[in-house]
Amino acid sequence: MEVTVEQFSQLYEQAKPLEDRIAIQQAYGTRDLTEWFLDLAKPQLSETVLDIGCGNGHQLFGVVTKCRSGLGIDLSEALLDTARQAAAARGLTNVRFLKASGDQVELGLERFDLILCNFAIYYMDVARVVAKMRQHLSPTGRVYIMGSPDENARELLEIHRRATPFLPSVYAPGFSDIRKYEPLLRQTFGACTFHQFINPLRFPSPEVFVAYYTSTTLFQSSQAAVEGLEAKIREISRAWWQEKQEIRITKIVDIAELGRPRS
Ligand SMILES: C[S@@+](CC[C@H](N)C(=O)[O-])C[C@H]1O[C@@H](n2cnc3c(N)ncnc32)[C@H](O)[C@@H]1O
Fold first, then answer.
1. Which of 51, 137, 204, 250 shows its CA 20 to 30 Å from the CA of 161?
2. CATH code given to domain 5-150+172-201+251-259
3. Which of 216, 214, 204, 205 is nearest to 153 (CA)?
4. What is the percentage of the chain residues whose pLDDT exceeds 70?
């Protein structure tokens, strides 16, 4: 299922929601996805990296500090701006950014040793972006694709459902489940291994949970359809907190590893 341009521009035209989401996940999560990923992918100082749908560059920065150079591409001007500013603030001179759609980008003869596409492939024409990955992967390179299976953040959805039956298309069952691409990925890259990263988040108060909820694409793509959604969620999360003395959600990430895994 492809997301229309109108839906997409609502989701990522502002940088703040994604930035808030990442910051809250980092503050209240039990584990760090980037650290875990670096341990899996083991980037080398001689290698180059391409991040398709890089967002604010958060994950790319972790990788590029261990590599020769990196390129991040994204469609959102706002997120690319934040990524460029963050790269400058960190003094990173080996990373550049390009505004382009992952399924249409023209990168000439460039080849990359590592290609990432995290929480973004399902917004693109998947056959085309996978062909681009194959085209621009070095002969010994590897590709990592992240997505969220339906079991991800069940509690978030349960709280949302207490407020409204409305479910946006980006939360339809299977939308961000990358396992559905397995036949295409195997056919294109041969080896395809799935890994899973599980990260429980424990919020310190209902207010922090509400801040997290309002940073999600679930809220952003529901708020126009559901009147007073934020106020309803605030009330429900306070009651949930009173009843259970906590709010936790469990983030579950699937990672497809393609090409040549490092031994
Ligand atoms: C959930 S965010 C993930 C960002 C980043 N990969 C991360 O893990 O933090 C999805 C990103 O995909 C980008 N995106 C969506 N459609 C795209 C397309 N066709 N080409 C490039 N980027 C796209 C959005 O702008 C957004 O930055």
1. 204
2. 3.40.50.150
3. 216
4. 95
pLDDT digits (tens, 9 = 90+) for 214-262: 999 999 999 999 999 999 999 999 999 999 999 999 999 999 999 975 5
What single letter denotes the amino acid at residue 150? D
pTM of the model: 0.94
- Boundaries of every domain in the chain: 5-150+172-201+251-259
pLDDT tens digits, residue range 141-163?
Answer: 999 999 999 999 999 999 999 99
Coil, helix or strand at residue 80 = helix
Residues near ligand 1 (Cβ within 6 A): 8, 12, 18, 53-55, 58-59, 73-76, 79, 101-103, 118-120, 123-124
103-141 burial: b if 16+ Cβ within 10 Å, else e: bebeeeeeebbbbbbbbbbbbbebeebbebbeebbbeeb
- Which residue type sits at 214? T
Closest ligand 1 atom to Cα of 116:
6
Closest CA to 8 of 221, 150, 163: 221
